[in-house]
């Protein structure tokens, strides 16, 4: 059942008991909408006429979504550089490869940088994906300096006139200070040669409020421009998309929809909202 279906069924019945409202509230909170937003939705539902409830709530939640551009940055006169950030386990490295594939399929040249040097599996994983889609990867020594990989990659991307450079960054999150230092150094090294156009944060939708806490740290540590949300659907944990955009005002740019290399799609707000209702 979709996220708001139970709510609308109750409202349309014309009579909702306090016990039912409590049950609906608990259901929406468990779907990672967040307590504050749940209370706003229920207040709107209670005040609306039964026949107008869906229209009223649709209007409210549309205001929660980011108004910022969801298109990926693209420059016609230089390389467009995208950093992909996030903690280990969110699907960061896989999402980097999927995004590279999507961009390549739009007739662009793409170079990958394996700057998650502290996790050997991440480098191997990125190289495996890249070989399948015929994209070159710049890598460095195991446990080496991520900024050194970033330097080599941006140098190559500029000299060989690539359209895009995608950098898979370190996924460690020991402390915010540690994260800021690592990401800050990578960004500074790149920006000495070319601007960083996007910093995309990968979040696992099923982690709910923990994902929102991760987002707070990364947004403070780096200039995040948007999100890649993995494992997002319109039912069990679908509310987290609304919660993230309302909290930070930044757009979800892509969603991971499966395990295959092609399973990454631009986020469609209208389709997402429809999935919450129907």
From TrEMBL:
State the Gene Ontology terms under molecular function.
Answer: GTP binding; GTPase activity; signal recognition particle binding
Q: Name one GO cellular component term.
A: cytoplasm
Record-linked Pfam families: SRP54, SRP54_N
- Is Membrane given among the entry's keywords? yes
Q: Where this protein primarily resides, as one coarse class?
A: membrane
Q: How does it assemble?
A: Part of the signal recognition particle protein translocation system, which is composed of SRP and FtsY.
What the record says about family reads: Belongs to the GTP-binding SRP family. FtsY subfamily.
List the protein's name: Signal recognition particle receptor FtsY
